[in-house]
Specification:
about 80 residues; mainly alpha; globular; single chain
Length: about 80
């Protein structure tokens, strides 16, 4: 995105109380960006080139999250499990 990257988008979504699933797609290999994206609420972080079948499977996983669980909490739970 020319004026807004995925990490900043997640920050703005959080500030505005927007609870929507997000998968970050990137060509960067920085582990720091990966961790920051997950902590900011991304459900997943995928590096390019993207395998379409894997992307569809990961999207299916997001859709399987129970309606009463927020996406931010689901991704934070995953990130916290890594500690």
């Amino acid at each position: 995105m020319p004026n807004l990257n995925g990490l900043k988008t997640l920050e703005v979504m959080s500030q505005k109380g927007i609870n929507a699933p997000a998968i970050l797609l990137t060509s960067r290999e920085s582990a720091g960006n990966n961790e920051k994206g997950l902590l900011l609420g991304a459900f997943d972080y995928i590096r390019k080139p993207i395998n379409k079948k894997v992307l569809l499977m990961r999207m299916g996983s997001i859709l399987a999250v129970p309606a009463n669980q927020t996406f931010l909490n689901a991704s934070s739970d995953v990130a916290n499990g890594l500690n």
